[in-house]
Amino acid sequence: MRFRRSKRLASSVLGLVLGLFCAVEAAKVNKHKPWIETTYHGIISENDDKVLLDPPLIALDKDAPLRYAESFEVTLTEEGEICGFRIHGQNVPFEAVVLDKSTGEGVIRAKEKLDCELQKEHTFTIQAYDCGEGPDGTNMKKSHKATIHIQVNDLNEYSPVFKEKNYKATIIEGKKYDSILKVEAVDADCSFQFSQICNYEIVTPDVPFTIDKDGFIKNTEKLSYAKERMYKLTVTAYDCGKNRASEDVLVKISVKPTCKPSWQGFNKRIEYEPGTGSLALFPSVHLETCDEPITSIRANIELETNHIGKGCDRDTYSEKSLHKLCGASSGTVELLPAPSTSANWTVGLPTDNGHDSDQVFEFNGTQAIKVPDGMVSTSLKEPFTISVWMRHGPGAHEKETILCNSDKTDMNRHHYSLYVHNCRLILLLRQDPSEAENYKPAEFHWKLDQVCDKEWHHYVLNIEFPAVTLFVDGTTFEPFLVTEDYPLHASKIDTQLTIGACWQGGNARMAQFFRGNLAGLMIRSGRLENKKVIDCLYTCKEGLDVQLPEEVASAVKVEFNPNQSSLTVEGDDIDAFDKVMQHISYLNSRQFPTPGIRHLRISTTVKCFNEDSCVAVPDAEGYVMVLQPEEPKISLSGIDHFARSAAEFESPEGVTLFPELRIVSTITREVEADTESEAPAGADDDPTVQETVVSEEIMHNLDTCEVSAVGDELDAEHESLEVDMSQLQQHGLEMSSSHVGLTISGVNTMANYEQVLHLIRYKNWHTEALFDRKFKLVCSELNGRYISNDFKVEVNVIHTANPMEHVNNAMVQPNFINPVHHASVDLSGHNLVNAHQASVVPSAATIVIVVCVSFLVFMIILGVFRIRAAHQRTMRDQESGKENEMDWDDSALTITVNPMETYEDQHSSDEEEEEEEEESEDGEEEDDITSAESESSDEEEGGEQEDQQGVSRQQQLEWDDSTLTY
Q: How confident is the model at residue 707 (pLDDT cuts 50, 70, 90)?
């Protein structure tokens, strides 16, 4: 029994061992395929390479033995391991990698950077395979093919871009729109989130527009064409990832006006450059009538110039010159001249300081002036004319005197006067005593709006008793009231002529002061002004002009006012009307016009067939800007220092002060540098060299030149300034003199002024105590608007030391004239500098030279006398019988030059004397000698040459008596 049991136990153990052995052998056989899921879904981002799969990638294989950890240990074999995964598909940018062969875990990775914008999803198949049998892994088995879907997640790497470069739209003013236009932007990102535009925004601030999230723009208020014709908006966009558009877009929204009758194409500012002739004011103007049926059009174009000068741009020469230019004959006296040395009674009056380029005097109710006696000799029995420019406001109720001739002392009688009272202009004429003591016209009253409108007006009164004619701005006005009075009683009291008030001789004070502005007050005795002269005095130098085209001349009517500051155009054809308006121009004939603004206005009246719906055209307003003219620079040059002998000053002819005077006028212009011309080296490196200044000489008129003494005033007892009156009259100029100097006045060319100034002579018949005299010359244009430099001349008087009469001309000291030439005109900088000012001899130096020369002459005479005396003593020893014949006769002293002396020696001797004189003259200016001129070697050589020349001259000048006969 025990054996059987043992035998049975042994048989069981052997069977178990054999079973295990068989099982192990069976496990080495690769009987099963790996197993994976049939479908996978994965996600990967554009900037990542690892795919997140659902479910995870795991392959299973049944060939792998079961693990019974509690029973026994099993050694794993290769047949149960997963050796890899295989992807099927074309250009699949992924790869599968086994992470753990024993567990079959794997992962899918991107082989390259993915781009969602190129491909959002990828689909491919995959298989797993085990490691197979045998040591070389043969007989491997593959799983079935599983499908993998991978989605590429987008990154917000692109910004919105607008479809159009710019957007335009037009709207009508006065209307609110639900949508004006739509802007649209796109985003290149692939995802819905990042490719969608979530918001639009208007970047431009403070604009009456808004935009919604879909890009629709609308206005937030009603727009006005007059306020803004075009709006420019900058719009941007944002995607849902909050990326802003790479470039903003410009949106232009034009505002179109509702059809309103108006002038179209009217420029508010028109610039006028002086000297360019006429300038078209409305070259592109068009009258918009909104297609209304019209019957007539009437437009009034007005150029406002009342703020310029005396009502407009006129010539600003002296009033006397203007009368001459306008054709008035002689006899005109200017009572309000520009202050000068010869007309100084207006010095105390306030002026506008040339603000309006005119001589305007202001009277504030406390100031008045007395006209010097003898200026006006008006007899009321003869015809005479009073003319004046006046600007006067409403004023008070008292009388305001413009001009008054009253008793100088004792009484307060007014002989004649012109005054303003309650906006009336009144002329008082009190006749002188006569045989018939009857009433006669004494006061002439004119009630005029012009007197109190605070504007400039020109008044001319032609008085030929008992008739008085008034011209205001060239228009005749009759007096509305004439009162009569008795003539004045006879008296021997002198009269006083005053301006701005009336002199009360009995009270010795002024009364009835004027408040306003006056200019150009003139009295012309003996003759009346004619209408042509009056119109010339009033006519402006600027105004409107029009050249009618031939094709429209008959269809449109044009009328001007007297001074051409306004014109009226009337017609019924719109096209012809527009053409006429386009040919209206501004013209200023002055060479140097007054710069500034001239306001411009167009007033229009349109008549229609249907009067109820007639067109109302608003006024169009603008202005003409007259630019600053290129101002001239008047330069005087010539000899400014010379000397004459006292005899010439005392002669009837006198001394000419300005023998070589030159008057030049230049203007300076800035022009762009010529880039094509060769520039100097380094010019390109200098950023300051940008423009070139050039000057050119121009010709224009002068109206005054004044010569005045510098220092002491002229003493009428022994000195005077004179000019040839016939030459003055020939050139139509006038001269007035005073204790200061003389003034030449009248409008004339610079060349004629030069000729007359060359003739001015200075006389002085008491020169014993006079060594020098200085004078100043100043010329001006346009009543002092442009003034020259002060040209000063110094004249030295040469007093001779010995007044004896010289027989030989070689002994006479010539007049010392400093060799000063014309100063060259520097056209680039207008600096007229005397080129030889360093050689001017001061008056003290001149006296020293004269004394030295006189002493030299005396020494020569003394030497000759001693030589002659010695010779006489010798001859007396030889021929005592002829002693009486050898007496020296010095009544006709003559120096005889040795005829054997060569011309070269004489010339060199003269040059040496001139050099010695120049050295003595320049001795006071040793500080100005340059180092090159004061080298010691030159001085030594000069000394040796002088010694040699002195010996030669001494030998040549030895007395030769071999040819003398006694």
A: very high
